[in-house]
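Supplementary Methods, section 5.1.

A reviewer requested that the exact input to the structure prediction be made available. We therefore reproduce it here, unchanged from the version used in the analyses.
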Amino acid sequence: MTISDASQNNDFGSLIKQAWQQILKTIADLRLAIILLLVIALFSISGTVIEQGESLAFYQENYPEQPALFGFLTWQVILILGLNHVYTTWWFLSLLILLGTSLTACTFNRQFPALKAARSWRFYQKPRQFEKLALSGQVSNKSVSSVIPLLENKGYKVFQDNQSIYARKGIIGRIGPIIVHAAMLIILGGAIGGALTGFLAQEMIPSGTSFQVKNIIEAGPFSSSLIPKDWGIRVNRFWIDYTPNGDIDQFYSDLSVINNQGEELDRKTIFVNQPLRHEGVTFYQTSWGIAAVKAQVNNSPIFQIPVAPLKGDGEGNLWGTWIPIKPDLSEGVSLLTRDLQGTMMVYDKNGDLFTAIRPGMAIDIDGVTLKIHELIGSTGLQIKADPGIPFVYTGFGLLMLGVIMSYVSHSQIWVLQEGDRCYLGGKTNRAQVTFERELLAILDNLETANNKTEK
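The structure derived from this sequence is encoded cell-by-cell as follows.
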C-alpha cells in the first residue's frame, strides 16, 4: 500500500466518522424528539377519533366518498393509510422505534455525560476562577474549615483539598432525566411489544353456551402463541340488575374457563371493570343483547327461536322475532322486547298489537295456546391479550418518579481560602432565587462568626 492509498483510506475513514457523528447528533437532537412526539400524538388522536377494527361496510357507510369528511377523509383513504388500525401499522411502529432511538442517543450523548460531570468534583485554586460564577462573594475568614459545618447543615456533601472546598447537593436531579428517558423507552418497548404479540377479539355469546376465541379484530404478527387453542369459555349465566325506575344498574356474566374436554379450570363472575384473566388473556364485560326466546305452542316440545336486534327511529334497543303457530309455518306472531326484564309485546298475523306477555305466561291467539318460557340473554365480551401492558405500567410509574426527581435542584458551591480572605461562589440548574438566598445566608454566617472572633 502506498502512502497515497493510506492517506485516502484515512480520509475516507474520517468522512465516515464525521457522518456518523452528524447522524448521532441529529438523532439526539431534542427538537427531533419533540417533533416525533407531536406526530405520534397526532396519529394517536386519529386512532381515537376514527373507529378501529370495524368492517369494510362500516367504513363505507360512515366515511363515504361523497361527501368526504373534511373534504378528503373517505373509507378508501382510511384503509390505504391504515387508519382503521393505527397502532399496529408499520409507519406508526416505525415512529415509535425512531423516537426510542432518539431518546437512547440523547441519553448516552447528553444525559450520562452530564451525570458524570455532576458526580466528579474539581477544586478552585485561584480567586479569578470565581469571576465566571453568577453568584460569588468573599469575606474575611481565618480558616476554610469553618465553612464546612454551614454547608453540611444545608445538606451539601463536602469535599476538601487543603484550602479548597467543593460541595454539592441534589445529584438526584441529574439522575431524574435519565430515569425519564429510561421510562419512556420502557413504555415504547411495551407498546411495540404489545402491538407485535397481542390480539383483540370480540364475541357475543348466548347464556348457557361455550365458545373459543375466533372473532379476532386485531392481531400482531407474533400473537398466535397467545390465542387460546386448548381451552375456551363457557357462559354459565348472564343477567342484568335494574334500578327501581327500570334503568340498567349493572350486567354480569358468570364465566368458566374449560379445557377441550369440558373440565372447568377457573371460574369468575365478571362485570364492568372486573374482568376475568387467564393465561395472559383478559375477558372484559362490554355489552349485552338478547339471543333467543324459548316458547311452546299447545303441547309441542319447547323450542328455541333466535331473536335479532332491530333498527328503529326511537331511543333505546329493540329486539324482535317471529314465532310460528302452525306446523306448516304458514302463520305466526311477532314478538318484540326492549330488555331482559321480561315484558314482551305480541303482534298478531296482521301486525296489530295483541297483548303483552312475560316469561312463564301463556296466551290464546288464533286458536292456539302460546307459552313463553324464557328470554335468553347474550353477553358481549372484549377479549384482549397484551404482553406489553406490565411494561407500560412500569414505565409510567418510573416516568412519574423521574419527573419528580428532575425537579430537585442540583447545586454546587466552591470555596477557596487565600490568606485571610475566603472566596465563595456557586451555581444551580433551577430554583435560582432560593439558591441565592442560601448562598447569602452562608456568607452572612461567616461574616457574623468572623466579627464575633475579632471582638
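The chain has a mean pLDDT of 86. These observations are discussed further in the main text.
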